[in-house]
Structures are given as C-alpha cells and as structure tokens.
C-alpha cells in the first residue's frame, strides 16, 4: 500500500461506477482499466447497455476485469442489493464514482409543473447520496477509499433555466464537501466534479435537442474557447482523484468546462 493514508495502488483497487454504461462513467471505467485496477463493476438500469459497456471496456483493455449489475439508483433496496453484489465481486470497493444522470432538460421555473418538482429533484440528488451511504461503512472498515461525485457548474453559477438543476447540483456539492470533512478521519476522500456541457453524452443530446435548454447550452458552448469538454476530459480527472497521486486532496469541487465559467 502507498504510505500515504487512504491511498492504495490501482492494482489493489476495486472500482464501482454508478452510471457506468455511457458518458463520463464509461470513459472513467476505461481509464481505470488502463491503470490496471483489480476489478470494475458498472451499475445501470439497462442490461443491454450494460453489456455494450462491458464490451467497450474490454475492447479498450482486453485484460480488464469488468462486469455489469442492473440497478435503479433511485430505489434504496435495489441500490443496496447491487452494491452488496458489487462488493462480493470485487472483494472491496476502494473507489466509488457516482455518475448517474436524469432525463431532465433545464427550463424556467415558471414553466415547470409544480407537481414535477419533487420528482426532478429526487432523481438529481438522491442517487449519489443513497449509494454513498451504502458503501461508506465498508470504506470506514478498511480505513481507505475515494468517492467521486458528479454535479455541474449549475451549482456554482446562477443561470436562468437552472433553478431546480442548480439547487440539486448545489446539494450534491455541499453533500460531497461536508462528507469529506466527516470521512477524512477514516482515510476516505470525497471530491466532486462540476462540469458544464459534456459533448457526446446522452445528457448533452437531451439538453441540446430543442427548446429553452438548447438555446441555453448553445450559448454555453460558444463560451468554451478551450473547447467543449468530452467524457475523456472528465475521466482523466476521475482517475486522478481515485488514485494515490491525489491522496491529500479532498472536499474539492472541480470544474472542467473549457472556459465556460471560472466559478
């Protein structure tokens, strides 16, 4: 083990990725596989997409140990079952990436039906909290672990149309930062990424597909003078945060957004 607290070499790490069948989750799985982690389990709702994701990881790294478990991240019983199954497969969960997404295109609050708000908020916020709550005691037992959550720049920058999304993302950021302070004594690190638009992802396709959100993100893309981020940009940071090189880094909200904002 690396002499720094909470920092195992990748070869000793089991990795659990929620939302691992596409986008940042899948790119991160490939990144971890290239670093030679002991094993990877992908969580997602769709078994067909899960099988495709496993194939993609193995195509990139034929020697990788990777599998898929179907789970609904919004269902406490289901996500608990899936996490326990993942732990049994991996032996230990040393790195947790929460990269789930919801089918929500931002819009002005006055256009959002009031009866939809709680459901939108729950799908945005609860999955990473639920899964972290399940995994955290296991990391405490082993006195090490790295948790990486995905939020967005909506948590930092007030943007018309992102009232609900901004509130949800801010919740994930503060959850991550506060948990970092709670868990540091057990050798556990917690960080959160806050990107803006990520090209080539299902979420990007959704929010740029038309309506108010398409105009919103068209403006955002025009401000990304360093280039709109792609999943691999985020995955590189995820892998760094999961590994021993970031052993002293916790409680940080990191934006990779091509220059859209400096929040």
From TrEMBL:
Q: Which domain of life is it from?
A: Bacteria
| InterPro entries listed in its UniProt record | NAD(P)-bd_dom_sf, SDR_DHRS6-like, SDR_fam
Q: Which UniProt keywords apply?
A: Oxidoreductase
Whether Transit peptide counts among this entry's keywords is no
For this UniProt entry, the molecular function terms from Gene Ontology, in alphabetical order, are:
oxidoreductase activity
Family per UniProt? Answer: Belongs to the short-chain dehydrogenases/reductases (SDR) family.
* Protein name (Swiss-Prot/TrEMBL): NAD(P)-dependent dehydrogenase (Short-subunit alcohol dehydrogenase family)
């Amino acid at each position: 083990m690396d002499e720094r607290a909470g920092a195992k070499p990748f070869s000793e790490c089991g990795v659990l990725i929620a939302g691992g069948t596409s986008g940042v989750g899948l790119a991160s799985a490939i990144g971890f596989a290239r670093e030679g982690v002991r094993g990877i389990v992908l969580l997602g709702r769709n078994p067909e997409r899960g099988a495709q994701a496993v194939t993609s990881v193995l195509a990139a790294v034929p020697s990788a140990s990777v599998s898929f478990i179907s789970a609904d991240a919004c269902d406490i019983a289901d996500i608990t079952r899936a996490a326990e199954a993942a732990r049994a497969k991996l032996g230990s969960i040393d790195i947790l990436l929460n990269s789930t997404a919801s089918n929500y295109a931002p819009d002005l609050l006055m256009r959002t039906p009031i009866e939809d708000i709680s459901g939108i908020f729950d799908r945005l916020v609860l999955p990473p909290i639920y899964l972290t709550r399940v995994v955290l005691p296991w990391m405490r037992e082993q006195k090490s672990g790295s948790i990486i959550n995905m939020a967005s720049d909506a948590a930092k920058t007030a943007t018309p149309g992102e009232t609900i999304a901004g509130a949800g993302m801010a919740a994930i950021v503060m959850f991550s930062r506060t948990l970092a302070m709670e868990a540091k004594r057990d050798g556990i690190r917690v960080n959160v990424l806050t990107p803006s638009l990520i090209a080539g992802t299902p979420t990007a396709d959704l929010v740029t597909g038309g309506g108010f959100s398409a105009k919103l993100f068209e403006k955002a893309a025009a401000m990304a003078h360093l280039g709109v981020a792609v999943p691999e940009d985020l995955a590189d940071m995820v892998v760094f945060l999961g590994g021993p090189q970031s052993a002293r880094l916790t409680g940080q909200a990191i934006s990779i957004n091509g220059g859209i904002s400096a929040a």
